[in-house]
Amino acid sequence: MAPTFVENAAPVVPVVTKAVNAAAACLDTKTESAKKWENFSFASIRESTVSRAMTTRYFKDMYDYAESDVVIVGAGSCGLSAAYKLAKARPDLKIAIIEAMVSPGGGAWLGGQLFSAMVMRTSTNKAAESFLEEIGVPYETEDQYIVVKHAALFTSTLLSKVLQFPNVKLFNATSVEDLITRKDENGNLRMAGVVTNWTLVTMHHDDQSCMDPNTINAPVIISTTGHDGPTGAFSIKRLVSIGAYEKLGGMRGLDMKMAEDQIVKGTREVVPGMIIGGMELAEADGSCRMGPIFGSMALSGVRAAEIACEIIEERRKQNLQYE
């Protein structure tokens, strides 16, 4: 087919010239960047140096935190909130956080149904607003609730602040396999620490030969392991199995309005040395499920920290007297 020629067509030269000039500008920018980094080089290092840098610090942490003041089991929104308030209020306490997953945060990286926004209800004392302002997380205000634009903003901010405290150590990819117990002065069971293992080991007890655990002694445990599941509601289920708690109430169906008050008000020391908070408490008491709303998770953690501050001296005294 013969080519078609269009009379009076606009010249293409100016367009080509503009494209060439733009490409040249990019090249100039890249050249400037290349010049800036031309003499860049990392310091020379031997692989064994990196290995020793990691292992010496990790095992020093294990050594130091083998005797802790408070162990927090579960680093979701409730556990991290408890860790933040406790570490801030009592910088003298040694606080170990045990998290089974590699990534802390539990279900608080997203809102409901994998949506981004995190919703918290407002309350009579504006506790959720106060907590968000304290940790520096901005939010939108509606009539009955507030909204953080992305749940990950809340969780990453809170996690960052917790990890900066010098009296806190997070052991992630680590599971609590059992509880350490003692008898108190009346012969009743009290908590004295946790039994731990690396999660990958815990997952393979059924298909490998005996792999014994490790331990952390502590007079107070805050358990916030969530509702029933592979690792959920661990502490309260173990308390039932050893006869320290009568029976599981079993989490009820979703009632957002009722559930949040039940969780915050119900956060407590269930047996000497063991504070239960968050959705694990719903399994203990038979409280309602709350669904995709997060205020009570954070505020249950705040209450758990307050309770820990109230009981720590008495539990320490028991540890010294009845070991």
TrEMBL record:
The record's account of how the chain is modified after translation: During the catalytic reaction, a sulfide is transferred from Cys-210 to a reaction intermediate, generating a dehydroalanine residue.
GO CC term, one of those recorded: cytosol
GO molecular function terms noted in the UniProt entry: cysteine-dependent adenosine diphosphate thiazole synthase activity; iron ion binding
EC number(s) recorded for this UniProt protein: 2.4.2.60
Coiled coil, from the record: none
Catalytic activity: [ADP-thiazole synthase]-L-cysteine + glycine + NAD(+) = [ADP-thiazole synthase]-dehydroalanine + ADP-5-ethyl-4-methylthiazole-2-carboxylate + nicotinamide + 3 H2O + 2 H(+)
Family annotation (SUPFAM superfamilies): FAD/NAD(P)-binding domain
Keyword annotations from UniProtKB, A to Z: Cytoplasm, Iron, Metal-binding, NAD, Nucleus, Thiamine biosynthesis, Transferase
Sequence intervals crossing the membrane: none
UniProt record, GO biological process: thiamine biosynthetic process; thiazole biosynthetic process
UniProt protein name: Thiamine thiazole synthase
